[in-house]
Design a protein that fits this description.
- The chain has 147 residues and is α+β, with helices and mostly antiparallel strands.
- Helix content is 41%, strand content 21%.
- The N and C termini lie far apart (54 Å).
- One of its GO terms (biological process) is DNA transposition.
- GO terms for molecular function: DNA binding; transposase activity.
Length: 147
């Protein structure tokens, strides 16, 4: 039963991967340049605190895609509450001017998208890797095709 994808806790062997997408409030495009890197660092730090492994992640201008291995001792909703809550505090600490745009402590949208990957982990990983390119291509399209 030993599989390279399996992880172990004290009395549990697990392989739980989730594709999660979440966005800032009002879907504002705020993740550019240095902010994009710093948001990535914040999310990596918070995942390390909870021993959540990031398989793949991409910070797009107006949303974030993450492929995560969340241990079964945490619920997905509990972990997302932690991730979005703590990251918004850390973002406001680094960028105090954003508090006025996002009503003090509400940086992220209320909801998020989550899907279990099952056996499609490689396809979802490739999708996330190419997400930024697809978003840029989509912005170049106009009413009559490419601009």
């Amino acid at each position: 039963m030993k599989n390279s994808n399996n992880h172990t806790l004290a009395h549990t062997t697990w392989n739980c991967k989730y594709h999660i997408v979440f966005a800032p409030k009002f879907r504002r495009k705020v993740f550019y340049g240095e902010k994009r890197r710093e948001i990535g660092e914040i999310l990596r730090t918070l995942c390390n605190w909870k021993q959540v492994n990031i398989v793949e992640a991409e910070v797009c201008p107006d949303h974030v895609h993450m492929l995560l291995e969340i241990p079964p001792k945490y619920s997905v909703s509990g972990f997302m509450g932690f991730l979005k809550g703590k990251s918004s505090l850390m973002i406001y600490e680094r960028y105090p001017s954003l508090q006025f745009k996002y009503r003090n402590r509400e940086f992220w949208c209320r909801g998020y998208y989550v899907d279990t990957t099952g056996k499609n982990t490689q396809k979802i990983k490739a999708y996330i890797e190419n997400q930024l390119k697809e978003d840029e291509y989509g912005e170049q399209l106009g009413l009559f095709g490419k601009k």
